[in-house]
Amino acid sequence: MTFRNPAMKCRACEQRASIHMPQHKLIFCREHFLEWMLAQTARFIKKYQMFPPGARLLAAVSGGKDSLSLWDALWRLGCAVDGLYLHLGIGGEAGYSDASEQAARRFAGERGLALYVIPVQQAYGESVPQMAARTHRGRLRPCSVCGLVKRYLMNRYALEHGYDALVTGHNLDDEVGVLYGNVLAWQMDLLRRQAPVLQGGEGFVRKAKPFCRFYERETAAYALLRGIDYIEDECPFAEGSTLLENKEALNRLESLHPGMKLHFYSGFLNARAQMFGSSGTGLAEGEESGGMKRCPTCGQPTQAAGKCAWCKLVNP
Ligand code: AMP
Ligand code: FES
Ligand code: ZN
Ligand code: ZN
User: Fold this and answer.
1) How far apart are the C-alpha atoms of 257 and 239, rounded to whole Å?
2) What is the mean pLDDT of the chain?
3) pTM for the whole structure
């Protein structure tokens, strides 16, 4: 993507171009790029039957460019969409979580949107890194415990407040990074569930990823050209992760073959459709395990008999 090459003209209006997207063979000015992003978002929502018009949506926002751009786009498309921010207690005082919360609050305040904040340490006695440090799987890196905390709290909050769907800001780079990892390890159960939308039911809210076909460069350009003030820092624990390594490998391939990520992803969705039935929709969570049990402590679904993984973590 090239910014402001004076020789380039917008495909739609002949004004000076702001963005060149060789992977789509498109060149746009600011205004037409922003318009294109909204039209594409609406198209993906419809194509993958993510949610019907009028659905009550909850956007999980991290304060980063993807989720804030998504919230902005859905709001401009006329969706009824509130925000949820989880303060995970990362980076100590005035650190990563505090700065991210401020970005999310600023964004919501400027637009008059409702943002709910769950301060994990205040609500449950420990920050996510503190919870992780107590456990075997979180000793070296809190990311896997953090993933559990995010999945559980987002799902529970969305269900308890009657939202029709939870939307997250996953972009194409995230999706192909995860896909590549799942293919390398032939994680068939994860491949079955990797989809633009997961049906709800049995204690799970419907989950959708309306930005799953946008390159990260496109969501970054959207945030920049829209003037969204987002947190640029990544979570400090992400450094050196396998997902980042996979993303770097895919970036090298994409630079040699523009459009490769989108081909890989849409090819996967077509193959999924042939193998499992539907390209856009993943299984409802828990479906493949033949029904879930209910946690005796919190009532949320769990595969194990007895307490769910979250309750074991916070009330061992
Ligand atoms: P990540 O797992 O960090 O790549 O984030 C994927 C998506 O999860 C983001 O685009 C957000 O929609 C959501 N998300 C991540 N962190 C948070 C958070 N602290 N609070 C709410 N939503 C989040
Ligand atoms: Fe959870 Fe980094 S965002 S460990
Ligand atoms: Zn234009
Ligand atoms: Zn529980």
Assistant:
1) 26
2) 92
3) 0.95
